[in-house]
Write a structure and sequence with these properties.
The complex is a heterodimer of chains A (282) and B (302). With 282 residues, chain A is mainly α. Chain A is built from eleven helices and two strands. Chain A has helices at 15-18, 21-36, 42-63, 67-72, 78-91, 108-134, 137-148, 158-188, 198-229, 248-270, 274-281; strands at 97-101, 104-107. In chain A, a hairpin with a 2-residue loop joins strand 1 (97-101) and strand 2 (104-107). Chain A is globular, with a radius of gyration of 23 Å. Chain B is α/β, with parallel strands linked by helices and 302 residues long. Chain B has a domain at 265-302. Helix content of chain B is 39%, strand content 24%. Chain B has helices spanning 46-52, 83-88, 98-104, 121-131, 136-149, 166-178, 196-211, 223-229, 247-252, 254-260, 266-276, 289-301, and strands spanning 3-12, 20-30, 35-40, 61-66, 69-74, 77-82, 105-108, 184-188, 215-219, 232-237, 240-245. In chain B, strands 7-8-9-3-10-11 form a six-stranded mixed sheet, with helices on both faces. In chain B, a hairpin with a 2-residue loop joins strand 5 (69-74) and strand 6. Chain B is globular. Classes of the chains: A mainly alpha (282), B alpha/beta (302). Chain A binds chain B through residues 2, 10-12, 69, 178, 181-182, 184-192, 206-207, 210-211, 214-215, and chain B through 13, 16-17, 51, 54, 56, 99, 102-103, 106-109, 112, 114-117, 127-128, 131-132, 162, 176-177, 180.
Chain lengths: 282, 302
């Protein structure tokens, strides 16, 4: 339970920590787009994924995070990976036949596509972890609110969304702590969360979930009251205590992001045979 | 048959930027059949310490021995060793099941009412015993005994724990641990948030359990409780053990009290003032207001 790194801010003063959260979010979205584009042949796709992974490693180095702590965020993913692998290998029946297990035909296309999805998911989660571990939750919500700003014109209650998100983010560590506490309390009553039969495990989970639900409902009610006593009005206009200014540095960074995006899109649209290009150089 | 901590240190979130050393080289001995209080400021490591006593936390370095169970970490691996098995030598496995320890030393967390989850009080109290291998009938019997021990009657057994009042929930949660019949009962601030009446009843309950031959270890901020019930006090500060002494000695050591910002109970201060002004009462016999009155009367008659 302690090793869920996703969503936890790790203090630091690197370039990435200091970067405006709005730009980090824009950059993240651009990376997401880039990760989901296809760049021609299978080999070319894998080369691009390799490049993304390298960029990601460089970012980690810049942010002075430990690679293992980010990898930990992938731990929860592997069940989904196996699930995808099974579904995909049996559902996709195009391309060349790879091998046959007990009469089931597995095709190369299925395997390759599973690899794509898994790599994409991994990259997405790792990049998101990078974002959340270098930005304070409050900065993140500020960034989101700002980016969703144009929706205000359509009468979308943007800052209610932002408030909801920031509260949710704020309470992740609290809930984790609560879950930890309840787990320890139930362990004192002989619950074994790690081992045991499936039925016992089911019971163990129930003994955790129910108290957790009860206390989160209680907590949310108390929080709502506390906010109201301090005059919170969801429809009121709010001001900021810390104001963020958009400087020329930010403009350049955003332009940089969009240049990158256009490069990726051009690569995806024209799909140049860059393996041949590189070979041609030598 | 005692609890022994040898040079125990514990660091939370080790090897991360959040690393925090909560216990620093704590060594202590708690003899069998003790009524002991752990006191100290918030964040002094009391709660961390009590979680070592039933193996919920393992020392980062050092060794914890509870009765015949020894817990430590060696080369990053948890090590549970049962001495009786080592001594007999006929057991090839000297390891023990951590649950044996959890049954031996029952730990009640702060605000235990949050751990209730079953549909009925009976089910919730018998949840623990069942986990430790009791049959349905045995568990029900234990639950019935436990609910009476905590001062509620059997009509509560069929009710939902969520419809009870805060104090009743607390009792039910404590009954859930008492039903395990632990030899050492450890309680983290069991009286926090209770009214004076509830507090007194709760403490009388622990006293009864103590009198039946069990050990009680409690974390508390309430010095009146320390004076009235407890036989031994451990004072913690910043993860270190400052003193292990009796309440009487603790409350008389004025220099120590100032340094640790411990406020002696009001009745104790009054008694001391009376003594300083010439009344020949004995401090040992003063536990609360009735005992002070009794002592004054005794001195008057002499």
């Amino acid at each position: 339970m302690n090793n869920i790194a996703l969503g936890r801010y790790i203090p630091g003063d690197s370039f990435l920590h200091k970067m405006d959260s709005r730009i980090k979010i824009i950059g993240l979205i651009i990376f997401f787009v880039a990760v989901f584009l296809t760049y021609g042949s299978v080999a070319q796709n894998f080369i691009m994924y390799g490049i993304f992974f390298l960029t990601f490693l460089i970012f980690i180095k810049i942010a002075r995070l430990s690679f293992s702590s980010v990898l930990k965020s992938l731990k929860t993913l592997w069940v989904m990976m196996i699930f995808l692998l099974i579904i995909n290998t049996f559902a996709i029946k195009t391309g060349d036949l790879a091998f046959v297990i007990n009469g089931y035909e597995v095709y190369w296309d299925g395997i390759v596509r599973t690899c794509y999805i898994i790599i994409r998911l991994m990259l997405m989660i790792m990049l998101t972890t990078l974002l959340t571990s270098t930005s304070k939750p409050l900065d993140l919500t500020f960034g989101l609110e700002w980016l969703l700003g144009p929706l205000k014109l359509l009468k979308v209650p943007v800052h209610i969304f932002a408030m909801t998100i920031s509260l949710a983010l704020r309470f992740i560590p609290t809930l984790m702590e609560e879950a930890n506490k309840i787990m320890r309390a139930q362990s004192s009553r002989g619950v074994d969360f790690k081992e045991g039969k499936l039925k016992d495990k089911f019971k163990a989970i129930i003994s955790l979930i129910i108290p957790l639900f009860v206390s989160s409902f209680l907590r949310s009610g108390e929080l709502a009251d506390a906010m109201e006593t301090r005059g919170y009005d969801p429809n009121g206009k709010r001001t900021k205590y810390r104001r963020k200014y958009w400087k020329s540095k930010e403009t350049f960074q955003v332009i940089g992001c969009f240049v990158l995006l256009s490069v990726f899109i051009l690569l995806a649209v024209y799909q140049p045979d860059f393996i041949a290009l590189v070979q041609g150089l030598f | 048959m005692s609890i022994k901590l040898t040079d125990v240190s514990y660091t939370y979130s080790q090897k991360t930027p959040f690393a925090f050393e909560a216990l620093k080289h704590v060594s202590l001995n708690i003899k069998d059949h003790s009524f002991l209080a752990l006191i100290g400021e918030t964040g002094s490591g009391k709660s961390t310490l009590v979680q070592h006593l039933n193996g919920l936390l393992l020392p980062t370095s050092g060794e914890v021995q509870i009765n015949n169970y020894i817990l430590s970490i060696e080369n990053g691996k948890r090590k549970y060793i049962d001495i009786t098995k080592v001594q007999k030598k006929k057991y090839r496995k000297k390891q023990f099941d951590i649950r044996d320890l959890r049954k031996y030393a029952g730990l009640v967390f702060q605000f235990p009412e949050y751990q209730l989850f079953e549909e009925t009080v009976l089910k919730d109290i018998s949840f623990g015993p069942k986990n430790f291998g009791a049959t349905d009938e045995e568990a029900e019997k234990m639950a019935k005994e436990a609910i009476q021990l905590v001062g509620l009657d059997e009509t509560y057994l069929s009710r939902s724990p969520f419809e009870l009042s805060g104090g009743e929930k607390r009792r039910v949660a404590i009954a859930g641990i008492i039903a395990l019949n632990p030899s050492v009962l450890i309680l983290d601030e069991p009286t926090a948030g209770l009214d004076p009446q509830g507090e007194r009843e709760m403490m009388e309950l622990f006293k009864n359990i103590y009198d039946s031959g069990k050990s009680i270890i409690l974390v508390t901020h309430n010095m009146d409780i320390v004076l009235k019930y407890v036989e031994e006090v451990i004072v913690m500060k910043d993860g270190q053990l400052l003193a292990q002494t009796t309440p009487l000695k603790l409350f008389q050591d004025e220099k120590f009290l100032v340094n640790t910002a411990i406020e002696p109970p009001f009745v104790f201060k009054v008694a001391k003032e009376l003594m300083d002004n010439g009344l020949k009462i004995e401090l040992e016999s003063i536990k609360d207001i009735p005992s002070l009155v009794k002592e004054i009367k005794r001195v008057e008659h002499e």
